[in-house]
Design brief:
The protein contains nine helices and eight strands. The protein has about 240 residues and is an alpha/beta fold. The protein has a single domain, classed as TIM Barrel. Strands 7-6-5-4-3-2-1-8 form an eight-stranded parallel beta sheet. Helix 6 links the parallel strand 5 and strand 6. The longest helix is centred in the first third of the chain and has 22 residues. It is globular and about 45 Å long. The two termini are about 25 Å apart.
Length: about 240
């Protein structure tokens, strides 16, 4: 794990790059939130990031979050950013403040069911597989439009925007069209719903500046902040399915 000084320096550099991207796009840097991706990172790394000023943490697996949350500061906000199986929806609504990876009406209904039992309204983002990659989860844009109003009708669900994982490439400019398509899709969804959707979660360590230029409000940063993930043991929470 990187030292506190290293993580703080990385955070400062990332924030500077976000601010520069906002200047290029004519945006207020305060409109972009950095989410620290804690997948595979020990609680010490999360505590160090929190000490550097970060408050938003993302986890990919329910089981890893279950083990890690009790060991981290209580004032953090946790988002589920990995694929969520519907049978983990109950735990997810208890552990997380938002689920960014809702990719089906069935999953949305499960989240709504458990939120109803807890008498709370649960914020979600709808994950879109904007490039149609077979290896990734997420709605195809046309499927999202077909189910959008049904999800919005769920009483305990609050749709706050869209999320995507762009195709990997060594040249961030190559994924600019994907980010632009997600932004355009959000505008179309807002037209269907007749209400604004405040968030676009897009951009990771290798492409977040382009994502900010194209309208990202949440960027999900792991390796650029923490360095490479420690290798997880097969029996550790980091290797558990979620």
């Amino acid at each position: 794990m990187l030292s506190r000084v290293d993580i703080a320096a990385n955070l400062n550099a990332i924030q500077g790059r976000i601010e520069a991207a906002c200047v290029r796009a004519g945006r207020n840097p305060d409109s972009v939130t950095l989410l620290a991706v804690a997948k595979g990172q020990p609680p010490d790394a999360v505590r160090t990031a929190a000490a550097a000023g970060l408050k938003l943490i993302g986890e990919n697996r329910v089981q890893e979050a279950k083990a890690k949350l009790p060991l981290c500061p209580g004032n953090l906000h946790w988002h589920m950013i990995g694929h969520l199986q519907s049978n983990k929806a109950r735990d997810a609504t208890e552990l997380f403040d938002m689920i960014q990876s809702v990719d089906s009406l069935h999953l949305a209904r499960e989240i709504n069911k458990w939120a109803e039992r807890s008498a709370k309204t649960f914020p979600i983002l709808l994950e879109v597989n904007i490039a149609g990659e077979a290896s990734k989860f997420g709605y195809k844009p046309e499927a999202l439009r077909a189910e959008l109003e049904q999800i919005n009708a769920l009483a305990r669900i609050e749709i706050q925007g869209l999320m995507t994982i762009a195709p990997w490439t060594s040249d961030p400019e190559k994924v600019r069209p994907a980010f632009r398509q997600l932004r355009d899709l959000k505008t179309k969804c807002e037209g269907v719903l007749g209400a604004p959707l405040p968030h676009l979660s897009m951009g990771m360590s290798g492409d977040f500046e382009v994502a900010v230029e194209e309208g990202a409000t949440i960027v999900r940063i792991g390796s650029a902040l923490f360095g490479p993930r420690p290798r997880a043991r097969k029996d550790s929470p980091a290797g558990a399915a979620g």
